[in-house]
Amino acid sequence: LELFAPELAAKPQLITANKIDALDDEERALAVERRAKELGLQFFRISGVTGAGLPPLLEAVWRELAAAREADAANLGLEPPDDLPTHA
Fold it and tell me: What is the pTM of this model?
């Protein structure tokens, strides 16, 4: 990603392995998970068909969005936005 667009590489990233319900080789998912951990990135296994793993991924997306909006507000000297729902 850094070679393609450094500005994108600087943004928060989440790594997702989809179609986990149809995985033919567990080692493939494990290799992606290991690489994500090496890079310090969050990794999620999901299935778009069954919905498995989606709640934790969505929670992580909400956290990243909220943190980015708070950082943007702080950089502009504004109050943090309160229109994004917070999830426990």
Answer: 0.75
